[in-house]
Amino acid sequence: MTTVQSPPVPPTAIRPKVVARTGLYAVLAVNAAVVTLFAVQAGFASNALVVIGRFAGLYGALLMAFQLLLVARLPWLDRRIGMDRLTNWHRWTGFGLLWTLVGHVVFIAFGYAESSSMNPVSQLVDLAETVEGVLRATVALVLILVVGGASARWARRRLAYETWHFVHLYTYVAVVLAFTHQVAVGTTFTASSAATAYWYAVWGVALGSVVLGRAVLPLWRNWRHQLRVEKVVPESDNVVSVYITGRDLDRLPARAGQFFLWRFLTKDRWWQANPFSLSAAPDGTRLRLTAKAAGDGSAGLRHLKPGTRVFAEGPYGAFTTMHRTRPESLLIAGGVGVTPIRALLEEIDGHAVVVYRVGGERDAVLYDELRDLAVAKGAELHLVTGPPVPDRLAPRELAALVPDIAERDVFLCGPPPMMNAVLGSLRELDVPRTQIHFERFSLAG
């Protein structure tokens, strides 16, 4: 594969991650201010509890629209922030949304009950039976409670990804129900033509972003590139590389370090989407993924036939040289996490040190390629073997391998326990956080 050199990053360049993050915060803050302005212009109810409840509902609607933006997988955001961080924001925004909507229901129920002879529960039932849209909003809240429960750590660990993902699809039903509730009884929605146009625009942009990022772009790119399996190459007893070709791949905006959600369109696999990183820098003629047999999806790659059609969503991820801050780099890989590291080494410029951590030499997948690339690019390559304990990438050991570690960008990919240990070592060695780059390849929505 042709080596693609990345341009040097100016030391004073504004980091893309900061630009995107600041932009998202600014968008949320401006819209919160606009929502507050329209609510004030619409006037206040005489009951303070009802006022608080209405504000909670408005901010909940805004957070719901923001959630859709976070899961839309828009390329501009994904390349700068990364899907794992967007997923983390999605998680915490989701819990904020949950409590905001619960507050909306509680304050509204108690507020109306204060001016009637009913208790709050009876008041809520009466509202659901007599006021248009309230029953739909109640159903939406129940769905969001179910999704929130499925997202709790104790539940997430016990649910299969497919089950968790299926439950999350009900979020879109909740969005539609909540929107119809807002249209029916939202005082600020109908208070002025400007407020009505604003809320239609907010929901239009949010839902449009999801349709664009999750449907239109993947369908268009796959129609354009017509991806197919070229060949399947075993790398070891349980690791295989799949080479994929297509049309106009030089126009596919993929970079070393990124990953795709791959669907291989066979009778028994078309419905499975598996995230695999590129294990070689894109060269405009083919793509390559390398995966270890860890489940039915990855184990079945070995049996793919040349010519099999491929549907790929992506590229995704901010684990690229776009985020470099230093002229020299340290690339740390663990196990099959070497795949994006190997691709990055092919693309990266400047002096690089590669540390590859495996249990034994026979586990060092793609090591021959790494060695050849290191020789060609003048990089240092260290193969670190042995059991997990003692930690062979502890602060002292890392400092011995790379004395100037604090002056380098660090790219890290591997199993979660290994990554957590290395991140701890980097903190102890005072490596600035802005120079540490990693992704956990988690998916939102």
From TrEMBL:
Protein name, entry field:
Oxidoreductase
Top-level lineage group:
Bacteria
Q: Recite the UniProt keywords alphabetically.
A: 2Fe-2S, FAD, Flavoprotein, Iron, Iron-sulfur, Membrane, Metal-binding, Oxidoreductase, Transmembrane, Transmembrane helix
A Gene Ontology cellular component where this protein is annotated is:
membrane
Principal location class: membrane
Q: Which residue range or ranges hold the FAD-binding FR-type domain? A: 222-322
What terms describe the molecular function in GO for this protein? 2 iron, 2 sulfur cluster binding; flavin adenine dinucleotide binding; metal ion binding; oxidoreductase activity
- Record bears the keyword Transmembrane: yes
Instruction: Specify the protein's topology with respect to the membrane.
Output: Multi-pass membrane protein
Cofactors per UniProt? Answer: FAD
Mark the transmembrane ranges. Answer: 24-45, 51-71, 92-113, 133-155, 167-185, 197-217
Q: One Pfam family for this entry, by name? A: Ferric_reduct
Alphabetical list of CDD domains matching this protein: FNR_like_3
